[in-house]
Structure formats: C-alpha cells, structure tokens
Amino acid sequence: MIRSARHPARRPAPFLATMLLAAAAGLVGAAPGDAASRPAAAAAVDAARPGATAATAVCGHTDEQPPLAQGSAGLATREAQCELNLATKAGHHTPIAVDGSFGAGTAERVRTFQRCAGLTADGEIGPGTWAALNSRAARPQPCTPDGTPSTPQSSVCGHTDTRPTLRRGAKGVAVRELQCRLNLAMEPGHYPPLAIDGDFGGGTENRVVEFQMCANLGTDGVVGPNTWAGLADWSSRNAYCTPPRPAGYPIDGLDTAKYQHPDGAPIDWAAVRAAGVEFATVKATRGLDVTDAYLASDMNAARAVGLAVAPYHFYTGTAAGTGAAQADRFIAAVRAAGYTGQRPGDLPPVFDLERMDDGSGRCPTHLTVADATAWLDTVETAFGRRPVIYTQKSFLDDCLGSTPAFAAYPLQLADYRQSITEPPLPNGSATWLMWQYTESALFDGIRAPATADVFNGTQEDLDRLANR
C-alpha cells in the first residue's frame, strides 16, 4: 500500500513518501529543495494576509489585475476565469470556459464566487475580488451555495489546446496547462495545489503519478494521450478524481500509517466515522526495527469513536529466519499501545505480506513459507486470534510458488483494477475477508489520500470479528 508501505500493485512506497513529505514542507510543484517552483502559490497566500497588496498570477497568465466587468477581454480576463475555476470547484461548480471574453457566464460565476467569499455580489472584479481570488484559487476551500451539474467546458485553463507528451524536465505553456488541469482534477484538501509555473519538476511528476493512480492509468509519471484524456475529463467536471467504489459490499474500511499525517497533521477520527467508515487497519511495525509513530494514537482514537480496528505488521525478508523475531517486535509494540485482541472493537492482527518496499518491486530476498508461518503462529499464540493475511494472488504466485499454505487464513487482498468485481483468490483459498480496492480514496478527517477497503460480509459479521 503506497501510503502505508503496503503496495503490491503500483509505484513503491518510498516514492510517494518523499512526495508527501515534500508537499507537507510546502514544496508543491517542485522536487524537494527546488524553492524556485513555488512562488505563485506562496505569493497568493501572502496576498491574502492583512495589509498585503501583491498581485499574483496564480494561473500563470498575467499578474496584471485591472478592474474587470462584462465586456472585458484579454489575458487578465483569462487569468480571472482560470482563478474562478480553481476557487469554485471545491463548491461543486463546473468550470467555466477560459476564453478571455468576460461574458454573462463569467459575470454570473464572479457573483457566485463573491457570495462564497463574503463579498458584495456585483459581478465585477475589483481589488477586493482579485485579492480573494488569488487566495482562494491557490488554496481552494468549499463555498456555499453548492453548484449543480452543468455541461463541462473543453477549455478550463486557457493556456493551450495542444497536448504533447510531457515528462520531467519539460518546460513551457503546455506544462502550465498540465499543472492547471491537475489542480482542477485533484481535490485540494488532500492534494495541495501545484504552482502553475511551466516547469515539470519532481512535484509535478509526483502529482501526475497520483492522478494516474486515481484514474487507473499506467503510473509512469509521463503525460501521454491517455493521461491527457483523463485530465481533460476530470478537470472539466464539477467533481474531483475519485476511484469508483466496488458495488455490492456496503461496509467500508481504510488503512492508515504515517503517510496519512502530512506535516504531522492528526486524523479526525470522528469525521472519518461520520463519513461511514466502519473499520480500520493501523500500521504498527515494520521488520525488526520500525514502529509507526501514530500506532497508539490512531488505534485508540479509532476505537474510541466506534471503529473496529486491527494493527498490522509489514514483513521484511531482508534476513533469513526472522519470522519469530519480527512477530515478537510486533507483539511488544501493540501490547504497549493497549491492543489485546480480545477487547470490544479489536479485530484480529494483520500480517502484511508483499513485495519489498525499497522501490525495486522484487520478492523479499529471504522470505520462505516457514518464516511467514513462524510469524503467524507466534502472533496467534500471543493473542488467541488467527491473524488476517494482507497479500495479493500475484505475489504468492510469483514469490512463494503459488503455495496453498495460507489457505486457512482470512485474507485482506489488494487489487486496484476497476475492471473486476472481486479480487482473485490465491491458490487453495475459498473466500476473502477484506478487499483493498484503491490507494487514492479521500476521507473526511484525513488530509492525505488513503487506501480503502470493503468488507465481505454483514455488519453482524464484522461485529463478531471485532468481539462486539
């Protein structure tokens, strides 16, 4: 998974971990350390501070901000229309056409924005409206009243209609169009907006990968025809990119680790629960030497609001014969955090069995069935609960010879394909317990994307599994 080191199907965890840390540090739109790529967003925030007067080209068209009204035309109108799209989409408003012509539709969207921002809704853009646009376009926030679906526009950023293949290192107007489209496609509360600076750096590449994951495209960070088509679709609608939820499984869950705490932000578990989530698996340990910093706080806070909760261990096969030792490390950590496996709300512990998380995608070097079984047996003895195994059929096929050795264990299976109705079962297994179907879910109360699951059973089944 990419945001909790459990990720058998896509780009490895360290890549996105670096990305999220860079975003948390404010280096959105750039590789870590590339401060030259964030002045637009930073200046927009500065412009919103009391006494600040600096004009900002948030969309990269022009930093000239003359008074505008119906009948105006030109680059400043394009900039205003683009900023209006960024600032109002969070209120479910379909983007308007960015054509440089201030017509009746633009005037109406200005009035909508002014009402959202608590300004006089006169449909004209003066200094106060410009300042509010600069701020809310760079850091979008929901506004009321909510919009209603309307016909998507093809031109929502106004830089160019050309769509060349783009990759890291590219520069120019097509990159500005890309960055603007990414900001319109990805929900800003979970994906901090990129600076629209025309420089395809590390931050832009990371955001491309995140969009490709969300839209179920190949995650290569290159913007070719399919990625452009997906961006054109999502950026022109009144909704942000979210993977579809599997039909037929009404009980929702999620998985968390430090990656769901960008810049140390806490998870609002009450908001998560209010959004309909019923269960969570929380990262506890990795290998022999890592305990997740948020194990105790997340596990206990999630239980406190009524979620069924399980701690999980990411198994590393970097040394031979460490199954029992890794189990001992996990047992000590979760007991210190209060987990017994027997309390109301305690789900069985989870054993995360997947490819190496070093970016190689290789099978764990020293993983054997005997090592995995040693972990499972040690933990089951300690807590009196048969562990759940998090894995993927292709992993067991490729790395453990399609072994049926784990067929008696309940399974949390990862498969992010949107073309399937349930995950394929490993050799010998008859059913699955949880299906992790995406790594791009957006949950109220969490400031970063998370992996999401559905439960294969009823609420009563979940309650029995959680000792309730």
TrEMBL record:
Signal peptide extent: 1-30
Coiled-coil annotated spans: none
InterPro entries according to UniProt: GH, Glyco_hydro_25, Glyco_hydro_fam25_subgr, Peptidoglycan-bd-like, PGBD-like_sf, PGBDSf
SUPFAM superfamilies for this protein: (Trans)glycosidases, PGBD-like
Biased composition (Polar residues): 147-157
Region (Disordered): 137-170
Domain Peptidoglycan binding-like per the UniProt entry, residue ranges: 90-133, 172-229
Pfam families reported for this sequence: Glyco_hydro_25, PG_binding_1
Keywords per UniProt: Glycosidase, Hydrolase, Signal
Family: Belongs to the glycosyl hydrolase 25 family.
Protein name: Lysozyme
Origin species: Streptomyces achromogenes
